[in-house]
Design goal:
This protein has 224 residues and is an alpha/beta fold. The chain has one domain: Alpha/beta knot. The longest helix has 21 residues. The protein binds zinc ion. Zinc ion binds next to loops.
Length: 224
Amino acid sequence: MPGKQNQDTGGPPSGDGAAPPRRRCEVCKHPVQRCACSLLPRVENGTAVVIIQHAHERKSQSNTGSMLAWILRNSSLHLHGGPGVPLDLSVLRQADVDCAVLFPWSGAPVVSADALGRRPGRRQCLVVLDATWSQARKMAQRIPEVRRLPFLRLSDDAAPRYRLRKPLGPGLLGTGEAVALALELLGEAGAAAAVRVGLSIVARNVLMERGKLRRDGGAARSAR
Ligand SMILES: [Zn+2]
């Protein structure tokens, strides 16, 4: 969470004469000196968002799942594949909640309020798989609580605005962008806008880390 930083266990060991590990923010994974998470908005969202994050994403600076969990008050983050960490998805088994998984299986309905279901007296929940596409495909097929749920996808004309990772094809967006668009399609414009503010901050940080943007916002000479 912003303001709550952890130690980078991947840094050099702090023995005799060794430099101490760089402190990193646990949301954006950047060194705390570069962390801009205090600028992230926090919003109420009606449709709950359940983020199942692959353990390999946990330290990635281009990851947006942890950012989503911070921005969206009605969300939860669950780590998948971490050693010794059981995946508790009891949140998906609540009796009064209708859940659907955001994943681009061909033939899945496009996200809409009707597709997610709007039954009186029940809450809605969108499940997102925060991983590479190959990891996410395996998670969709193998996690029992996920596999049994209905799936929804984004339309093929959904195009990425933020180049955090290499785009792979029509309708395939990174976790943060996919959730922003899905929330917009579900009528949650305010929550979608807040997520996009967060994406702009993450994208700027990632560009700076790659040496493609100066701190004053100009393009670095090494930018390609
Ligand atoms: Zn941060």
